[in-house]
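FeS assembly ATPase SufC, pasting as requested.
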Amino acid sequence: MALLTVRNLHARVAGKDILKGIDLEVAPGEVHAIMGPNGSGKSTLASVLAGRDGYEVTQGEVLFDGKPLLELSPEARAAAGVFLAFQYPVEIPGVGNIHFLRTALNAQRRAKGLEELDAMDFLQLAKEKSKLVQLDAAFMNRSVNEGFSGGEKKRNEIFQMAVLEPRLAILDETDSGLDIDALRTVAGGVNALRSPERGMVLITHYQRLLDYIVPDKVHVIAAGRIVRSGGRELALELEEKGYGWLGLDGGKAK
Ligand code: ADP
Ligand code: MG
Ligand code: MG
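Structure tokens follow.
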């Protein structure tokens, strides 16, 4: 069974129809890359899956593990094993990164009927996982995202994913300020977290990232629809020929 099924998804933001019939199926173990011109609806898709306020679904459905996802609160989605990296990009002064993450992990453990981790056990786990992205201990004690550089935010995102071990991870790589070292670290973390049970949706307009994370499938969104799907070679073709080759210009399908 597919891990994530998106069927004919239509969504509206600020009174404007943005998603106009998205169909997507992600099986366990697969990494899907979603690409497309600026303003085509990539982040809107991620926001709808996250359950962000202000995004109105007008048609279609989303199933996670065969169950309706859209009726769940953002918190319930997270507890069920859906990880949306940018769910936490907001700066939360005064709340330590580590405290924040423990709360999220324990919510997930409660949902699974597991015992919560105490501070000591959690710290142990966090230290182990932090090695994956070369985050140092001082970093963990800083407030959530407060004063983090672009690269640190990305590392933290992967660190959160490593701790929460989601079944489905949706990463919206909107940050263009990722230097090559951070890019490699993020890609290394993502690759280390690939597993036969886990699906990942990686939203990016940088083909470069896909030199490090080789996707199973690539989709191009334009004007709120998936206009092309293929394997890794599709990303390479886009790199070479640009979106113009698909008859797309500025996010508008011709
Ligand atoms: P992408 O991530 O592909 O660059 P987005 O999903 O961010 O595109 O945006 C798609 C369209 O929706 C754009 O025209 C954008 O201006 C509009 N949009 C997205 N979010 C909002 C919002 N909160 N309010 C108004 N318009 C929005
Ligand atoms: Mg954009
Ligand atoms: Mg975007």
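Note for the archive: The domain at 4-253 is CATH 3.40.50.300 (Rossmann fold).
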